[in-house]
Amino acid sequence: MVADASKEETIRSVAKGIIYAVLGVVGLMILLAVALPNYINPPITGSPRGVPRIACINNLRQIDAAKEEWAIQTHAPSNAVPTWEDIRPYLQLGGTNGVIPKCAEGGLYTIGALTDAPTCSTKGHALQ
Ligand SMILES: [Zn+2]
């Protein structure tokens, strides 16, 4: 009977080991299922810098559109470099006409020539 009790204990400890192993694998799978899609395709809005970056890129788009509109209206040559005052009438943000947008992360905008896209001095803030 002593041998049987010892055997039972061994079986119990093996079973415990298997349960822990299965729980470990399940836990790892859950972790991978949650983390892997974010790793492969990180959500832009989920990253802490995502929202100001998107807002900034939207600003750059507005500036670019204002540049184009200014060029059309004034028949400016393609190498022309408009100023903020030039494009101010063509900027329409948040329903307030002529508001010059600001980068949420303190970047400085450069309008640039008509042939170039406007830029922000903050790294990663750029029109594609
Ligand atoms: Zn920016």
Strand and helix layout:
Elements: H1 2-40, H2 50-74, H3 84-87, E1 92-93, E2 96-97, E3 109-110, E4 119-120
Antiparallel strand pairs: 1-2, 3-4
The structure holds zinc ion.
The site of zinc ion (ZN) has 7 residues, from loops.
Largest sheet: 2 strands, antiparallel
Compute the CA-based radius of gyration: 30 Å
Order of helices and strands: HHHEEEE
Structural class: mainly alpha
Strand arrangement across the biggest beta sheet: 1-2
The DSSP helix count reads: 3
Measured as a percent range, the helix fraction is 40-55%
Counted beta strands: 4
Mean pLDDT: 81
Shape by Cα distribution: rod-shaped
Q: What count of domains describes the coordinates?
A: 2
Strand proportion, as a percent range, falls in 5-15%
Low-confidence stretches: none
Give a quick precis of the structure.
It contains three helices and four strands, in the order αααββββ. The protein is mostly helical and 128 residues long.
Can you put this structure into words, describing what you see?
- By secondary structure, the protein is mainly alpha-helical.
- The chain folds into 2 domains: 1-41; 50-120.
- It is 53% helix and 6% strand.
- The protein has 3 helices and 4 strands, in the order H-H-H-E-E-E-E.
- Strand 1 and strand 2 form a beta hairpin.
- The radius of gyration is 30 Å and the shape is rod-shaped.
- Bound molecules: zinc ion.
- Residues 56, 103, 105, 107, 120, 122, 125 line the site of zinc ion.
